[in-house]
Design goal:
Length: about 475
């Protein structure tokens, strides 16, 4: 139960929206038990379940049991770690031992993970407590979050709209105060899109910086596990814990453990290149306005802004992504067998069929164009330290609207996102205000490989400067 609730200014809902590091300190200092903290998060999940539908696989009893274990460890004088007793969520599809691992598909609903993914294992070793697996579209093939298996997930800021995807359940949970951290993944914007839709933070790290041992092609990987949080300090802490090499991910072997604890907000000398219309796609005026306002705060904090980034820098990226992504999804057919096909939603069957239609020469050409895109972006970084652009070109659409990654709606809406899966550069989506309809807006910053610290500094400056950062959805 809560200790000293009457004297605490952060009881109840305020406590749920406290930072993960604050929550961990309170548990460690005995101001609240982990069991009580986790219990509050679970109750919040239950209270909002009908409206949001963001927890696909509840883990409430096990979560409470693991929270009690943290309390017992503390009573013995042990230190459970920097995330001591903090409630978190993990995206469905990331392996957590003993739990279902459906990836939003009826064809996977009986799969039980036999072991923890290394990234979750690292968070658990740091003291985090898992309360549930969050909803995704089937096999992550859309940037909206709905599936035949788990239903439609909605945006806490307005239930008519999508929280984005494919880590949409994770972002919705964060925005609603269900857990203070969320673990997601990003193969084509799946962390950054929902962060922008829900007013939260998400980092797609340099490819390999955080291991992705479940991705089937470790040498051609374009997907990243990544942290999601409501504060920059929490995002940095989570990133630092999750990073570092493992022998099951070839690209991770090229990196070291992240020295990501620096989060100063010092922007002196940072050169920012502004890309107003990524991929040549139109951006809604309100979104552009909010991003330009955010850039003004960064300039006043010492950054210099350059508007001479090549406008065509990301043009043609979706044509490359469509081939590589669809061929990857087509691999599901061989992996799961023809009988699984009848259980898939139509949009996923379509993308599998598209992948099967491409030739080996098509794939080879797409890989060559991927390299050319990487080199164009590298050339841009000779003149700037960070590239900025709107995270999304428009506000979130209806909650149940399809947006598969091979379609033109996705190509336009996520035009700033998937190019950097192809190039591997680190990218962060940072809240920068709201539209006149009260929907969040995000700005994306991209840095050179292994220079995530620049992104953290930019995010810290905006967190300190922009009004409305601490606003909460009215649920």
């Amino acid at each position: 139960m809560l200790r000293n609730v009457a004297e605490s200014a952060v009881a109840g809902a305020d406590l749920l929206y406290a930072s993960a590091l604050t929550q961990a300190a309170m548990v460690h200092e005995g101001r609240i038990s982990s069991e009580a903290l986790v219990g509050l998060a679970i109750q919040r999940a239950k209270d909002t379940a009908t409206d949001l539908n963001c927890i696909a696989i509840p883990r409430y009893e096990r979560g409470l049991e693991e929270a009690r274990n943290v309390d017992v460890a503390l009573a013995r004088g042990e230190d459970p770690g920097p995330l001591c007793g903090v409630p978190v969520t993990v995206k469905d599809g990331v392996a957590t031992a003993g739990d279902r691992q459906t990836l939003g598909s009826f064809s996977m609903m009986d799969v039980i993970a036999e072991r923890d993914d290394i990234v979750w294992a690292r968070l658990k070793a740091a003291g985090a407590v898992l309360i549930g697996k969050t909803a995704t579209p089937e096999f992550y093939h859309e940037v909206t979050t709905h599936s035949a298996l788990h239903g439609v997930t909605r945006n806490p800021w307005s239930l008519d709209y999508t929280p984005g995807g494919s880590s949409g359940g994770a972002a919705a949970a964060l925005a609603a105060g269900i857990g203070s951290l969320a673990l997601g993944s990003d193969g084509g914007g799946s962390l950054r899109c929902p962060a922008a839709c829900t007013g939260t933070l998400a980092l797609k790290p340099t490819v390999g910086r955080i291991p992705h041992e479940s991705f089937p092609d470790t040498f051609g990987n374009y997907s990243s596990m990544g942290p999601m949080a409501r504060s920059v300090e929490d995002l940095v802490a989570m990133y630092t814990i999750m990073s570092g090499p493992t022998d099951t991910d070839a690209l991770s072997l090229l990196t070291g453990v992240a020295g990501g604890n620096r989060c100063t907000g010092d922007l002196n000398g940072i050169r920012i290149g502004w890309l107003a219309n990524p991929g040549g796609y139109h951006v809604e005026a309100e979104i552009s306005d909010r991003c330009v306002t955010a850039l003004g705060f960064l300039e006043r904090a010492g950054a210099s802004l350059r508007r001479d980034i090549q406008p065509s820098l990301l043009d043609g990226a979706h044509a490359i992504y469509k081939v590589i992504g669809a061929v990857g999804h087509a691999g599901r057919l061989r992996q799961l067998g023809g009988s699984a096909r009848s259980m898939w939603v139509e949009t996923f069957r379509d993308i599998v069929d598209l992948g099967m239609s491409f030739s080996a020469a098509d794939l080879a050409q797409a890989q060559e164009r991927r390299t050319a895109l990487f080199r164009r972006v590298q050339h841009a970084f000779r003149h700037v330290d960070v590239i900025a652009m709107p995270s999304l070109t428009r506000s979130p659409g209806p909650a149940d609207a399809p947006c598969p990654v091979h379609g033109e709606d996705y190509a336009a809406w996520a035009a700033a996102l998937y190019p950097f899966n192809l190039t591997g550069h680190p990218a962060i989506s940072v809240p920068c205000g709201f539209t006149s309809d009260g929907l969040p807006v995000g700005i994306q910053f991209v840095a050179r490989w292994h220079e995530e610290e620049h992104l953290f500094d930019l995010a810290t400056t905006l967190q300190d400067a922009l009004p409305g950062w601490t606003e909460r959805p009215n649920l």
